[in-house]
Amino acid sequence: MVTAVIAEDESLLRMEIRRTLGNLWPELEIVAEAVDGIEAIRVIDQFSPDIAFLDIMLPGPDGLAVAQHIGGKSHVVFITAYDQHALTAFEHGVLDYVLKPISLARMKTTVDRLKDRLSRPPSDLRGLEELIKNVRNADKQYLKWLTLPCGSELRVVTTADICYLKADDKYTSVVTSERAYLLNLSLKKCKERLNPEMFWQVNRGIIVNVSAIDTIHRSFRGTLEIRIKECSEILPVSAAYTHLFRQF
Prior knowledge:
The chain is built from seven helices and 15 strands. The protein is of the alpha/beta class. The chain has two domains: 3-138, Rossmann fold (3-Layer(aba) Sandwich), CATH 3.40.50; 145-245, CATH 2.40.50.1020. A five-stranded parallel β-sheet has the order 2-1-3-4-5, sandwiched between helices. A five-stranded antiparallel β-sheet has the order 10-9-8-12-11. It has a three-stranded antiparallel β-sheet with strand order 13-14-15, with no helix packed on it. A hairpin with a 2-residue loop joins strand 6 (145-150) and strand 7. It starts with a strand and ends in an 11-residue tail after the last strand.
């Protein structure tokens, strides 16, 4: 019997992963589920699963930390919305990943790979952090595009087409002239990968593509406001960021 643990903080996605695996691999036994990194480490130590499906953005110790804790004791599959550096490392064959939203075809590929790898010892992931660090050092470029969920599909959106990004709880709304997409990453994480010369944070919850700005003016309260070209929205500039527009 092949056993697995699923560590994912979104309950609906956790159910979807379990259901998809049940359809593709009925013999696989899901022995435990976890909603954060601490619980993931506990159940993995308790059940010693053959496979661990880990959300890379788990609360508490994240998926990378949990994978390093596992070492070479379990095969690891990361579940991720988007992490360029991690995906680059995974593509080098260190381990596997599945992008959100879950695709049946992609999960089938992962299942097929896992079945093949079960005949071999799991990769020792204690050096995963160093590997990710090396990939980051080798690639200093900022994001040029994002893969964003659009219904049952994924849509590729270039950063040049983004008008602005807005914090939405633990998610980020990515707004283009055509529509808004919901990305399962915090605004802080997005900012780390965006070119600061192209994207300016104008208040605590909004980052604007400078090329998308139409006009800047003062409101009747004396605060600065930005009008976006394509979507004609007006965004407030907080006092902490007015230095970006010194001439005003």
